[in-house]
Amino acid sequence: MIRIEQYESIVGKVLIEELFLLAGKLEGRSIQNINSTAVGGGVAEILNRMIPLLKQLGVSASWDVIRGDEKFFEITKKFHNGLHGVEVEISQEEYEHFLHVNEENADDMEFSDIVFVHDPQPVALIDHRKTNGRKWVWRCHIDFSRPDPRIWNFMQKYVTQYDSAVFSAPAFARTLPIPQVLISPSIDPLSDKNKELPDPVIEQTFERFGIDRSRPVITQISRFDYLKDPVGVIRAYRKAKNHVDIQLVLAGGGATDDPEGPMVMEKVQAEAANDKDIHILLLPPSSDIEINALQRGSTIILQKSLREGFGLTVAEALWKGKPTIAGAVGGIPLQITHKHSGILTYSVEGTAQWIKQLINEPEYARKLGENGREHIKNNYLITRHIRDYLLLFTSLMYEGDLVYLG
Amino acid sequence: MTPNSESAFHFHTKLEQTLLLGIKARSVVQLLDGIGSVPESSVYFHTHHFLLQHQYLSPEPPNDFAYWVSELVGNAALGESLGSVDIVAFDSITGLRDKFISLLETHISSDAYRPDTDHGEPFHFMASRTFVLPTSFVAHDIREFREMIGGVSIESLYYHIFDARLRLGREENDFSRWLRDRGRPDIAEKIRKLDPYAQTMEGLRKNIIGAIGEVD
Predict the structure, then answer these.
(1) CA distance A172 to chain B (A)
(2) Is the pLDDT at B2 greater than 90, yes or no?
(3) How close does chain B come to A222, measured CA to CA in Å?
(4) Which candidate from A21, A173, A401 shows the least CB-CB separation from B130?
(5) Which residue in A18, A379, A403 is closest to B53 by CB distance?
(6) By the 8 A CB rule, do A171 and B124 touch?
(7) Per the domain annotation, does B4 fall within a domain?
(8) How high is the pLDDT of residue A378?
(9) Residue B76 at interface with chain A, using a CB cutoff of 8 Å
């Protein structure tokens, strides 16, 4: 098990001491996380990492998962898509079933002092808060910038009953009568996807995929999804390749729950034609080390998304000190300050132009990568995420803009 | 509280919680409206958080208003004007807010002004809540004080330099105040004159240590 002290060498002793100090302010209070799945997905991943670390800090933290039948999860999948801006139809009967499952779960649960509810599935538990005095916080992990207004109207009745709501990016904030807190997601520098790798591992990975390390490699790691614009990436690579000798790696998972996936892959393969310098890698889910190695061995990382949630793949690339060119969408502008810690682009042409410039100016590219890594270190590692959560729980006990925690 | 003229200097640190106000600006006119109506803690946030989040980039970090206008609206001249506001010259957020309002109003009423189109990424108004914590660093004399300046977190420096003046309404930063009370107005004055907005936090730390100089 990873110990909280292992992060000291990365973020410094003072920050870890601060976490213990802050955790001490929560003495005697219990914190209960509630979500809808114990495995799979970003929320379960972060809770699996965070709960043991919170306990090591002395926080009484627990995690409960709500139960639901297949129909419930079909409905919540529709919620999820609708909140992402996709048009969906939800019947009155489905809304009622959703509420019924929430009620059944609430009846079976004992709530802690602070109830931290993640995402839409358990949002209506608040309707059954049995005792006053407990604090309830709703944590929204999803892109909330263009929610379907009908679903949002339904959810709003429940969200506004909470003491506070937490969003991952400024663009997701709503007009609400309760405080809204910004807590960005994070990456774990000790995970397989982000830990330091010995050079031979990187070397072997490139060899295995037949990528030539003696020439510059441009890489985009992402699902094969229209919104990640893999075809645009190939077009930008082609434009740049007229002037610089580069290879392109497009690597990512298969997106099995995405019916458009195979179609996107077909288009990507057609666009790549028979270019031997384009490597399209469909990786299985357990490829964290390979992804890490591909990122570390690349010259430039791209994330040319057209739409993005927070875009943690950008944080992963920057953490590895890689010069990164990314679309200015979703949470990406929070991670990249244009021309300081990376490059933000809006088009195929702009992306191609910056690929050429960074290949031709390695010193500037190196500085971008260095700044990017420092920015991630200060703002997007799991230790900052823990600090924000501890502060969130503590803040529920105080009022005002300036609080002395003596 | 900190510092006490009769006693040691207790270093404090601070943690910031970022609040989302749900208010957006899609044009320079909306930016002006927003600056005029958001709480003071929002103006403070947008003129200061850059210093902590991007400490390695500067010596001259822009404020959020200047960054958005320059990089996303694409108005370099107005961006430079907003980025050149001498924040150290203000002793209240109200004065600082009025300065930004006046610059934007002047721009909008000038011949050079053209109504904006949609720039894609809007400006999102945020604010912050500050939580102050005592640290284990306590200096009993100037020699210890100098040593500890080298060891405290940048958040601690930030609190005693920036928050002390603009958020707590103290006449000068906590370090200068304590040194003056210890009978060293010369060092106090040197630190007071440092422009903390024109250097990185690590640069500021070095300059404070330099201002104290060698002490017995």
Answers:
(1) 8
(2) no
(3) 23
(4) A401
(5) A379
(6) yes
(7) no
(8) 86
(9) no
Q: Is the pLDDT of residue B70 over 80?
A: yes
Query: How many angstroms separate the most distant Cα atoms in chain A?
Result: 68
Instruction: Answer yes or no: do A371 and B131 touch at CB < 8 A.
Output: no
| Assigned token pair, A108 | 């079976």
Within this chain, do residues B118 and B194 fall inside the same structural domain, yes or no? no
Secondary element (H or E) of residue B46: helix B40-53
Q: Per-residue pLDDT averaged across B38-67, rounded?
A: 78
Which of the residues B13, B16, B20 would you substitute to probe the A interface, choosing the one with the greatest number of A C-beta atoms within 10 Å?
B20
Would the CB atoms of A175 and B41 count as touching at under 8 Å?
A: no
Query: Could you tell me if B94 and B191 lie in one domain?
Result: no
Domain boundaries, chain A: 4-186+381-395, 199-379
Per-residue pLDDT band for B76 (boundaries 50, 70, 90) equals confident
Q: How many domains does chain B have?
A: 2
pLDDT at B116: 67
Question: Is A220 in contact with A257 (CB distance < 8 Å)?
Answer: no
Count other Cβ atoms within 10 Å, centred on residue A397: 14
Distance of residue B68 Cα from the nearest chain A Cα, in angstroms: 11
Q: What is the pLDDT of residues B128-181, one digit of tens each?
A: 999 999 988 999 999 999 999 998 988 899 899 888 888 777 888 999 999 999
Which token pair is A195?
A: 């830990």
Amino acid identity, residue A394? T
Q: Which residue of B has its CA nearest to A385?
A: B17
Indicate whether B121 and B20 sit together in one domain: yes
B38 inside domain: yes
Give yes or no for B193 touching A (CB within 8 A).
no
pLDDT at residue A102 in the model: 97
Q: Is the pLDDT of residue B117 over 90?
A: no
CB contact under 8 A, A392 and B17: yes
Residue B138, chain A, CB below 8 Å: the answer is: no
- Give one DSSP letter per residue of A248-307, joined into a string: EEEEE---TT-TTHHHHHHHHHHHHTT-TTEEEEE--TT-HHHHHHHHHH-SEEEE--SS
Contact B127 A400 (CB under 8 A): no
Residues of A in contact with B71 (CB under 8 A): 338
Distance from the A405 Cα atom to the nearest Cα atom in chain B, whole angstroms: 5
Element spanning B17, H or E:
strand B9-25
Q: Supply the range of the domain harboring residue B30.
A: 15-126
Q: Which residue numbers in chain A have pLDDT < 70?
A: 40, 254-259
**Matching CATH number, A199-379, of 1.20.120.80, 3.30.1490.20, 3.40.50.2000, 3.20.20.70:** 3.40.50.2000
Q: Domain A4-186+381-395 belongs to what architecture? A: 3-Layer(aba) Sandwich (3.40)
Confidence at B216, pLDDT banded by 50, 70, 90 = low
**What ipTM was reported for this prediction?**
0.85
Of B22, B126, B129, the CB nearest to A401: B129
Residues B161 and B201 in one domain: yes
How many residues does this entry show for chain B? 216
